[in-house]
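Reviewers of the previous submission asked for a worked example of the structure-prediction workflow described in the proposal, so we include one complete record here. The input consisted solely of the amino acid sequence. No template or homolog information was supplied to the procedure at any stage.
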Amino acid sequence: MADSITWGTPDDLTSADLESVTDGLKPSVLGYWLDRARRAILAEAPLAVLAARIRDGVVDAEAPQDVQIDLVLGKLANPGGIRTVQESNGPASGSITYGGDSPGTLTLTAQHRKMLSITGVGRRVARTVDTWR
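From that input alone, the workflow returned the following structure tokens.
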């Protein structure tokens, strides 16, 4: 099956960048991270499955590209994966906590999985076991 999914390009990425995290980065660097994000998506939803979901109307045709760009912008905005930053200046202090379970990584969030109709992958589910036997 041919890759019928439209993936993001460096131009798409810079167009979606509201915080200027792509400023000064070469298109080759942006392409590298876009490729890594595409592979992260396909690791959880194989190409054939994702294409079938799009064909069947379960997943919006632009969702893979949206998720790919979200992943890269999240990585570029916090490349070091910092979870919390605390500052103090005399009597004033403050802290910033970055969202997500894995800041600065190419990890799909629950919202990304929902957009791509990925359910139960990589999650453990509690079950009950009959003990009367």
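The first strand starts at residue 84 and ends at 89. We consider this example representative of the routine output the project will generate in years two and three.
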